[in-house]
Here is the input.
Amino acid sequence: MNYTILLHLRQELMLAALIFLLLFIKLGKERSNESILNFINIGLLVNLGAGFCCHETGELFNGMFNTNTIIVFEKNLLNLAALIISMQSYAWLKNNDNMIEFYLLTFTSLLGMFFMISSGNLLMFYLGLEMSTIPLAAAANFDLTKRKSSEAAMKLILSSAFSSGILLLGISFLYGTTGTLNFSIITAHINGNPLQLFAFILLVTGFAFKISAVPFHLWTADVYEGSPVAVTSFLSVISKAAVLFTLVNILYKVFTPLAHTWYLILVVLAAATILIGNLFALRQDNFKRFLAFSSIAQVGFILIGISSSSQAGTASLIYFVLIYIFSNLAAFGVVSVVSALTGKEKISDFKGFYKTNPMLSWVLTIALFSLAGVPPTAGFFGKLFLMMAGAAKGNYGIIIFAALNMVISFYYYLSVVKAIFMDENPHPIQKIAVPTVSKIAMYLCVIGIIATGLLSMVYDYIHSISFGL
Amino acid sequence: MMNLTLLILIPLLTAVLILLAKGLQQIRVIGLTGAFAQLGLTGWLLKSFLAERAAGNNATYLFESNQTWFKALNINYHIGIDGIALAMILLTSVIVVAGILVSWSMDKLSKEYFFLLVLLSMGAYGFFISLDLFTLFFFLEVAVIPKFLLIGIWGSGDRTKSAMKLALMLMAGSALVMVGLFGIYYNIQSFDIVQITQQGIPVGVQKFFFPFAFLGFGVFAALFPFHTWVPDGHASAPTAASMFLAGISMKLGGYGCLRIAALMPDAAHTYSWIIILLATIAIIYGAFATMMQTDLKYINAYSSISHCGFVILGIGMMNKTSINGAVIQMVSHGLMTALFFAAIGMIYSRTHTRIVAQLGGLLKAMPFISTVFVIAGLCSLGLPGFSGFVAEMTVFMGSWQNPDGAYRLATVLSGASIVVTAVYILRATGRAIMGPISAEHALLADASWNEKLAAVLLIAGILLIGLAPFLINHLIMPSTDAIMVQMSKVIVAK
Here is the structure.
């Protein structure tokens, strides 16, 4: 028997095993939600640990599936995010009858992402992408009693289907002009003829949809607002991160000959994404919509980093995603707990929040500072390194533009902090009893936000395993 | 041998202990102990610094230590101080002690309040000891957010608006600084100040990026037209925060401007006329705007714009005397405004008004506070014997050395502003301190021990510089010499 398959696919296999186990648990005799939740969280923890055990390069299925140190690390990040989300949703899922379905859907999606990140072939890539998107649309509809939730699911599935269509058109053109779907062979056949360029643009458009880069972002806010908080955090962190990782893989390894073309595309996309994300975030009152637009702006910064096409570009992307996992999930964690226990999701509801919930207020504030990029939180380093990677190209226009946009973003992040600490409110949100599991997840995020930045070995490690053009 | 990291570790430890403490009494005792420990440390630092210099150690930076931080990006935790940085550190530690003393009875969210004050001071210490531009920038921003929270939560008047305005303007300033630093980094491949100085930055790069970095720091130093955060921010802030803002935070800007001018001397030389123009406008505009103010805090805030203009003017004139003057003015202004704000805070906490017209005859009820107020005022208008005179005089002497006609004109105009200063200071002092006292104010108590101690500490600093200016000159002179060597490389080349 060939054990390399087991080794290379260990993260995927464990996740698949977990999915099947959950199916059996669902069919088997009734158990309390708490015990199942604990079991799932432990399973996720083991899966996370499995990622760290061994790293080696390899490929399976004729180059369809690749793995190497950096891919394993990327999957670990997604596992980590999944674990944190699962812990934070404890309060929400504890009393939910369909708790297992939630995990079935999100885990299937995660599995799809793993295959997508590892893909060495456009077919495998497309398979993974679809496997990751469709369950999420179902998960967005998870609040069965809410109209907004089904609206969100509808919008998500329609926009995904549309972007998949565009992506498929791009893939088929690419196949037509190169005669292959295999990444390593495609590179050799790319000569920049018009049809290939067109195919490439279609492909990038498909990606831009998934990472909600402007002007393909219109679905984001509605979907984020309508979905349950857990699904929103899954969408905004894990799903985005997976697509970004894949985007870098494909741009840096497959479309190498078109480097100058996609550099220009990325810079334009980045500028538009940062500006529009910021301007719309200014006016939001719903917390989830607010975080949706702020996450759009963050993607713009990530695109600046990616545009550098250097080792520092990949490193700063992965580093930023790690920080983004901690910061965004800390913010979503607080919103999730508050929303699960009081149903309040508006920023104006958070006025005077500090008086009643100092601990949650600090977690939220630190998360927002990290998203804004204020030291000593890790967000400062993350954003700075992205921009430094971008600046290495010598295009200072975009850096100046991004720097000024950082100031705009400070305004809306500080507005939330202002609401929490400074605004008077006769009826603030009452004291919230946070479940221990969620509390651990929040502390984990806060420690992550502080430590990831100040401890340079995190970045240095990521840099050492990264690749450039 | 000194370890400069202690300067960051002591505030950090103080901050952590404050978080663990219970009750106002414990918190403020820990805060004060930490501040005094820091003051002692800086005193010892001064002693070892002078000893090293006396022993003939002529290195530009002493107590250097260089540790790798982000290896892949060549970012290092490189620290070290020269005389200028040491003067700033001393200033900071004195103001921190005074600031904590005047906040003695802060009972609203006291834990958070003292924590943020200490955090702010930590940012300032880190900033002054950094020899790596990345670390410098890191600490610059660390010091911004505490100000936002301090003003927004504990402030008075339209506090949230002022806090937001201040935070956004300072963040915009640091965004500009960031662009400037990136420009340097991608042409030298290093953030290290020492290395950049040795290597020199290409002239084209200097000319493009100097405005970003200099104006960015200029926002912090209240350079016209980026001064608008100063009046609102200072007026809304609680007393200690005002002291920290004017005494420490604005100095981050002045110090940064000086370092940038030394790193990019070609560009500084090219743009010096703009710098001088803006500084002169700030000096005159600040002085005249002060004339129109009725609120004591606004008076001091606008006069700060005018006084900080002298710092920029001194840097813009780019000669040894003027830069010496700029440094002394930073220290002097820091002590003086902190004293002024402390006095205003003491008056306000008793009378609950800061409007000059509603005050009067305070000398009768509170002789100590009134004396402090008068001393701060006299120092502000540049009376010989106080630090303000020494500082401004040095700046003028330096400026006058510049033979260019337009520069002479700027010097004359700036000098004339002193008359305006005298008008508004004497008027405010006369109205508030002299004359008849209202019945309700007559019964108010004078300063308590903590307020007295804070004031005495600051006044001691002012008198020390005023009466024995050679002491501070002796401290900073070798460092300004080093800066002049950097700057003159260009001037000779032209």
